[in-house]
Amino acid sequence: MVAGDMNIYKGVPFAAPPVGGLRWKAPRPVEKW
């Protein structure tokens, strides 16, 4: 989904959320379901 100058991904996660210790670090793979 494109909104203006941003790409918005909804539904299937492509990376772990950048919270806690992951904040300001490179994206990490999401855990398997």
Cross-sheet strand order for the largest sheet: 1-2
The pLDDT mean sits at 80
Helix content: under 10%
Low-confidence segments, given as residue ranges, are none
The Rg value, from CA coordinates, equals: 11 Å
Fraction of residues in β-strands: 5-15%
H and E string: EE
> Distance N terminus to C terminus?
23 Å
Oligomerization status of the protein chains: single chain
Query: Which word captures the global form?
Result: flat
Please tally the β strands and state the result. 2
Biggest sheet features: 2 strands, antiparallel
- Number of alpha- plus pi-helical segments: 0
Structural class: mainly beta
Keywords:
0% helix, flat, mainly beta, two-stranded antiparallel sheet, 33 residues
Summarize the structure.
It is built from no helices and two strands. With 33 residues, the chain is mostly beta strands.
Can you give a write-up of this model?
The protein has 33 residues and is an all-beta fold. The protein contains no helices and two strands. It has a two-stranded antiparallel ribbon with strand order 1-2. Strand 1 and strand 2 (6-7) form a beta hairpin. The protein is flat and about 30 Å long. It starts with a strand and ends in a 26-residue tail after the last strand.
Topology (elements, then pairings):
Layout: E1 2-3, E2 6-7
Antiparallel strand pairs: 1-2
